[in-house]
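User: My collaborator sent over this chain with a note saying "see what the structure looks like." That's all I know about it. Can you take a look?
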Amino acid sequence: MSSVESLVSMHRKDMVLLRTEAKQARKQRHGSERELDQAFKELRSKLSSEMPVASSFPMKLCAPIALMVTLVGVFSI
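Assistant: Without extra context I'll predict from the sequence alone. Here is the result:
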């Protein structure tokens, strides 16, 4: 009976140790993820500030031209 109790107590101690190790590993992962997220946000803001703003004028002309082409195609039939 004593050997079973000692095995159970050793198992409990091991499980407590594993839980604490898992918590520490999780905290380290979250910390490194935060650092990576922050670095990504900084890089994205730096790139967006350096990139020129694209003109949306051709996109504004796309819809009326497509409409005109469609109407010409429909009426020419």
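A starting point for your reply to your collaborator: The radius of gyration is 32 Å.
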